[in-house]
Amino acid sequence: MNKSLVSTYGYHLLAIITSVIWGTTFVSTKILINYGLRPEEIMLYRFVIAYIGIFLLVPRPLFARNLRDELLFVLAGITGGSFYFLAENTALRYTLASNVSILISTTPLMTAMLAHYLFGKEQKTGGEALTRRFFYGSLVALLGVFLVVFNGRFLLKVNPLGDALTLLAALFWALYSMVLRKFGNHYSALFITRKVFFYGIVTILPVFVFSPMQIDWNLLMQPVVAANLLFLSVVASLACYLVWNIVVRKLGVVSATNYIYLNPVSTLITSFLVLSEQITPIAIVGSALVLYGVYFAKRGFPFLKKTKN
User: Fold this and answer.
1) What pLDDT score was predicted for residue 159?
2) Prior bond of 61 cis (ω within 30°)
3) CA nearest 18: which of 231, 256, 298?
């Protein structure tokens, strides 16, 4: 096994780990909301803490090389930060969490479509061209997501506003992936991640003009609240955003984003371990379909592929 193959396998593994961790954030967010924190407050806290941490690692340079790139960083902060979380968390107020989990899993398909139509020629040469295999695998994974999310309790209520906001959140993340692609190798992953956090914070602040924020230090110092905030900030934001920006660069937008299908499986397991929620046989079948769909769409992982003599 040559070094390049090992390296590629490592990036796939990092993408899987990141997606699994992001799947657990729904549980942490739910815990914090149950303690009285609003969704927009949770987003602000996690990004501020993450920004402070990454600023200590990379304080310079402050700005991009030119105005165009700086504006792209603003767009990245909006699509991968403030607007994404606002759309997703607000959707939870108007529709079922199961609806949100299913619809947000359309992100890989949206990303693939955008990549195909915006970077068609590059996709063909970069090994990420859309194929029937990809779509079939995605459909299998989506079916698995459906079974995992409902976990044996088949309840689906259509709410136009909430469902539309969820699809909008999926579109924002797909656009964020496209913006990341624009940066190429011109900036380090640390610098990109720091800028995303900064503009995510800046663009979320206007929300608090209409809904003022009251900081309750006694609440924030409670062990459960503090632990979940630190997890969302240091692990799910600082570390995972940094790793994600690296794997998108190394694997490509479509390849990396396809692992988002694993999120609901991770959420299911975490909910069982932390919230004592039941796992049904249907959910187990769904998890298997998700794993197979991701594998099928990617034509197998690189270390399992046959090599030509």
Assistant:
1) 64
2) yes
3) 256
Please name the residue ranges forming H helices in 2-131. 3-34, 39-57, 67-77, 83-94, 97-104, 107-118, 120-126
Residue 173's nearest CA partner among 240, 110, 93, 102 is 110
For residue 208, the tally of other CB atoms under 10 A from its CB is: 13
Q: What are phi and psi of 36, to 5 degrees?
A: 110, 0
- Model pLDDT, residue 307: 40
At 60, which amino acid appears?
A: R
DSSP, collapsed to helix, strand or coil, labels residue 262 as helix
Model pLDDT for residues 181-239, shown as the tens digit of each residue: 888 788 999 999 999 999 999 999 999 998 888 889 999 999 999 999 999 999 999 99
Ranges of the chain whose pLDDT falls below 50: 1, 121-127, 300-309
Give the separation between CA 308 and CA 285, rounded to whole angstroms.
35
Rounded CA gap, 264 and 136, in Å?
A: 19
Spatial separation of the C-alpha atoms in residues 149 and 44, rounded to whole Å? 27
- DSSP assigned state of 259: G
Mind spelling out the 3-state secondary structure of 185-202?
A: CCCCHHHHHHHHHHHHHH
* SS3 category, 35: coil
The whole-number pLDDT of residue 122 equals 47
Residue with tokens 């996709």: 123
Tokens found for residue 304:
């399992």
Instruction: Please report, for residues 89, 91, 277, the alpha-carbon distance to residue 80 in angstroms, rounded to integers and kept in the order given.
Output: 14, 16, 30
